[in-house]
Write a sequence for this structure.
């Protein structure tokens, strides 16, 4: 049974850097893309980006300049950093697995982390 | 970027009724790369349908997907109480992956 467990700071001030990590349990770490997706309160889903076990990435151009994804294969973990946050970055952030290395849907999700940006 | 527009925004139905949800893309999407998810309050989304019409593991056969090109449909043949939720379509064939804005299926 694949499980994604995520953690990170839940309250940030404007201009700070958001940092979240997701650990993968119960399945292979290679052979998949690992995603970050966010959902502002009461709104829809926005794909942030993805990374595979070898560090190959793709980012949403709307956030590209502020996002960095990284991977630690020794721990089966991947991480998100989003710089210069503002109130518009307040959202529930999910880590998630794409069901393969090609163009695949998302089949497993983390529990979500609410990140609030407020002065 | 492919924009997905879902309609209606809200669907008010009774248990046992049929639900038909629409997802329209701003440009053609291969049917291999269209998925549907539902999300209940306080939970992460769950994959229902992938490749436009294939049910994910454990999804009951009252859920079905269809469509091609720019028009896709999710049908729930008979609504069960646990089906009242928000439904999202997603295209995963091109980057950035994009989601529709969601359709809320609520109890009438």
């Amino acid at each position: 049974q694949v499980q994604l467990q995520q953690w990170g700071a839940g309250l940030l001030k404007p201009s700070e850097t958001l940092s979240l990590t997701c650990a993968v349990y119960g399945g292979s770490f290679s052979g998949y893309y690992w995603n970050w997706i966010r959902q502002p309160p009461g709104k829809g889903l926005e794909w942030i980006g993805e990374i595979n076990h070898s560090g190959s990435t793709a980012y949403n151009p709307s956030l590209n300049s502020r996002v960095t994804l990284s991977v630690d294969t020794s721990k089966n973990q991947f991480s998100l950093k989003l710089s210069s946050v503002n109130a518009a970055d307040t959202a529930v952030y999910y880590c998630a697995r794409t069901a393969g290395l090609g163009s695949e849907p998302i089949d497993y999700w983390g529990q979500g982390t609410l990140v609030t940006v407020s002065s | 970027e492919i924009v997905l527009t879902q309609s209606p925004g809200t669907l008010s139905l009774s248990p046992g009724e049929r639900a038909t949800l629409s997802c329209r893309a701003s440009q053609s999407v291969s049917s291999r790369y269209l998925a549907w998810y539902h999300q209940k309050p306080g939970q992460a989304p769950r994959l229902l349908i992938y490749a436009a019409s294939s049910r994910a593991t454990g999804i009951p056969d009252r859920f079905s997907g269809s469509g091609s090109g720019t028009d896709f449909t999710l049908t729930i043949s008979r609504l069960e109480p646990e089906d009242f939720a928000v439904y999202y379509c997603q295209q995963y064939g091109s980057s950035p992956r994009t989601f529709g804005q969601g359709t809320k299926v609520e109890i009438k």
